[in-house]
Amino acid sequence: MGGIKTLVFLHLVYISTCMEQLDIIYEWKQLDFQFNTPEARQQAIDSGTFIPENNMPMGLEIHGDRLFITVPRWRAGVPASLTFVNLKDNSTKSPKLIPYPSWASHSLGSDGKPEIVSPFRIRADKCNRLWVLDNGKIGNLEGNATKFPPSIIIYDLKTDMLLRKYTFPEDQVKEDSGFANIAVEDTDCDKTYAYAGDLGKPAIVVYSWEKNESWRIEHHFFHPDPLACDFSVKGHNFSWTDAIFGLGLSAPNADNFSTLYFHPMASYNEFAVSTEYLRNQSIADENFNAFRLLGSRGPNAQSSASFVDPRTGVLFYSLVNLNAVACWRTTNKEYSMKNQGRIYMDDVKMIYPTDIKVDYDENLWVLSNRMPIWMYSKLDPNDFNFRVFSAPVLQAISHTACDVTPRHDILEKFANKIKNVTQKIANKINPSSAVCASSFSFISVLLLSSFILFM
Ligand SMILES: *[C@@H]1O[C@H](CO)[C@@H](O)[C@H](O)[C@H]1NC(C)=O
Ligand SMILES: *[C@@H]1O[C@H](CO)[C@@H](O)[C@H](O)[C@H]1NC(C)=O
Ligand SMILES: *[C@@H]1O[C@H](CO)[C@@H](O)[C@H](O)[C@H]1NC(C)=O
Ligand SMILES: *[C@@H]1O[C@H](CO)[C@@H](O)[C@H](O)[C@H]1NC(C)=O
Ligand SMILES: *[C@@H]1O[C@H](CO)[C@@H](O)[C@H](O)[C@H]1NC(C)=O
Ligand SMILES: *[C@@H]1O[C@H](CO)[C@@H](O)[C@H](O)[C@H]1NC(C)=O
Ligand SMILES: *[C@@H]1O[C@H](CO)[C@@H](O)[C@H](O)[C@H]1NC(C)=O
Question: Where is the signal peptide (predicted)?
């Protein structure tokens, strides 16, 4: 009996010391760019084409050695809105952003319009193409927005050449439209589909690579929930009425269609639909019931970006009011509070998780950017404000409700863990080697020792 109590106690200690399942790969106080020369940088600052505090990283994607980062043109002074850093260069944890594919693609043309205007989120597909969903608006936070039509810009990641630029037809873009999130169904490289969420005027614009055509699908599940529009992040209270936002595509099902998991930003609910119903507008219109409500994340659990890891089938999503990233196994029958796992939660480091991806080597990536503070107040330029986190998916989900390890392995892991923890305690008492439990306080060791003595 006492032995079991000890085991349980050890387990609790272990979990509480190893809650942070992701490592910080990069962190920035402010963003900076790799200009061609120091003079060019100074000139950009002097002319106002680079205003450091107006640059906010919004989306991320990983491909090969490159980590892509978008910097929307919400305010003036964004020199390049699509950039990357070299993952191989580990000389700094605050690398300068390199414009993609070149500086030229970001310089204003005679029409005041760069090739890439203002993307929020992007997707590298398995066919080595980078899909850039361009929102098309400049300066919309400064009340003097210049609007260009939204588009999908597609680059060849092997050659960095522009493959295609598809501008959304006028009748698919409404007065209040805002295109921030994209999912790409790349099961077949020739018959690829992209799904772009309209958070301003609820809809999904579906683009067919094969047909070079798009259509607009509407459904009431895309709408914001009026009871979920209040947000509170780090003491900033605000109301957002953003519609469909998080888009996560599963691996293909037996019928070769994927499932699109989606949620509005102003909502506690998660929904799903087979892409069979999105690929043809009239089929979508005729099958309203094909769109399903999965369930609720619970109060205060509004979510921005989400992503499905096709291999483990785990849906990852942010919880913006809770400064957290959570997960749910799509093989679960029920979508409820109790079968969601918590990957990372931190009131300093994870303020506003803004994008989530799993790369092709099975690593989870998260970007946090403190956006509400930036929008409604001011970021402290002496503090780390933007962070990129990563960890192998299996590590990130281990010991959470999303753990995919088979049952007998879990028991074995548990036994190992107890052994390891015991070892760690021994190490702590007789400190010679440092292990994972950096936050494993001496007090808990003392408590534990007295607990063991007590029995
Ligand atoms: C990164 O740094 C480590 C040492 O800290 C080194 O072993 C490794 O080779 C570096 N990686 C690359 C790709 O340069
Ligand atoms: C928009 O307004 C901001 C701040 O008021 C100003 O700095 C910027 O130059 C303006 N942009 C344009 C295109 O007028
Ligand atoms: C696709 O359609 C766009 C219209 O937005 C057109 O400009 C472009 O040339 C087309 N591309 C191809 C490859 O057909
Ligand atoms: C902001 O909202 C939180 C909870 O939603 C509440 O506790 C707090 O009092 C609010 N703060 C202000 C300044 O209204
Ligand atoms: C799914 O795609 C595979 C490969 O293209 C094909 O062999 C199979 O018949 C398809 N299955 C269905 C149900 O269409
Ligand atoms: C969409 O589905 C309808 C049947 O509901 C069919 O008649 C039509 O040809 C399909 N459209 C396309 C573009 O495949
Ligand atoms: C326990 O430690 C061993 C080696 O130190 C390691 O291989 C194993 O993964 C650890 N197990 C757990 C569950 O942490």
Answer: 1-18
Between CA 126 and CA 92, with CA 32 as vertex, the angle to 5 degrees is 75
Q: Which of 393, 312, 321 has its CA nearest to residue 356?
A: 393
Residue 159 to residue 155: CA distance in whole angstroms: 8
Q: In terms of Cα–Cα distance, which of 104, 105, 62, 58 is closest to 85?
A: 62
Strands (DSSP E) contained in 330-430 are 340-345, 353-358, 363-368, 386-392
CA 182, 187, 192, 193 dihedral sign is: negative
Q: Which atom of ligand 2 is nearest to the CA of 75?
A: 3
Cis preceding linkage at 150, omega within 30: no
**Measured between alpha carbons, how far is 198 from 29 in angstroms, rounded to an integer?**
31
| Pocket-testing residue among 54, 142, 148, ligand 2, by greatest number of atoms within 8 A of Cβ | 142
d(CA 259, CA 248): 8
Angle at the Cα of 185 from the Cα atoms of 243 and 295, rounded to 5 degrees: 45
CA distance 155 to 177: 24
Give the position, in ligand 7's atom list, of the atom nearest the Cα of 420. Answer: 1
The terminus-to-terminus CA distance of the chain in angstroms comes to 10
How many Cβ atoms from other residues are within 10 Å of residue 201's Cβ? 15
Quote the CA–CA distance of 355 and 57 in Å, as a whole number: 10
**Predicted confidence band at 16 (pLDDT cuts at 50, 70, 90)?**
very low
Cβ contact 83:144 at 8 Å: no
Half-sphere exposure of 215 (CA within 13 A, CB side): 14
Q: 47: Cβ below 6 Å to ligand 3?
A: no
Q: Is 47 in the pocket of ligand 2 (CB under 6 A)?
A: no
Average pLDDT for 428-443: 41
Q: Using a 6 Å CB cutoff, which residues line ligand 1? A: 88, 90
Instruction: Determine the Cα angle at 274 with ends 164 and 180, to 5°.
Output: 45
Element (H, E) at 12: helix 2-17
232 alpha carbon – ligand 4 mean position (Å):
7
DSSP E strands in 107-229: the ranges are: 119-124, 129-134, 137-138, 146-147, 151-156, 162-167, 179-185, 193-198, 203-208, 213-217
Which pLDDT tens digit goes with each residue over 223-252? Answer: 999 999 999 999 999 999 999 999 999 999
The CA angle 65-66-69, to the nearest 5 degrees, is 160
Query: From atom 10 of ligand 6, which residue's Cα is the shortest distance away?
Result: 280
Q: Output DSSP code: residue 97.
A: B
Phi, psi of 221 (to 5 degrees): -70, -10
What percentage of the chain has pLDDT greater than the value 70? 85
